[in-house]
Amino acid sequence: MLQLGDEVTLYSMVFVLVLLGTRSPLWTTVLTVSLYLFLAMFRFPQVPASRVQQVLHPGSDKVSAVAHRGGGHDAPENTIAAIREARKNGAGGVELDLEFSADGVPILMHDETVDRTTNGSGPLSQMRLSDLRKLDAAAKYRLSEKFAGETIPTLEEAVEECIKLQLVIYFDVKGHPDEAAAALTELYKKHPVLYNSSIVCSFEPKVIYRMRQSDPEVVTALTHRPWSLSRLGDGVPRFSSLWKHHWMTLMDVVLDWAHHHVLWKLCGVSAFLIQKNFVSPDYVQYWAQRGVEVVAWTVNTKVEKEYYHTLLQVNYITDSLVEDCDPHY
Ligand SMILES: *[C@@H]1O[C@H](CO)[C@@H](O)[C@H](O)[C@H]1NC(C)=O
Ligand SMILES: *[C@@H]1O[C@H](CO)[C@@H](O)[C@H](O)[C@H]1NC(C)=O
Question: How remote is the C-alpha of 49 from its chain's centroid?
Answer without folding.
Answer: 19
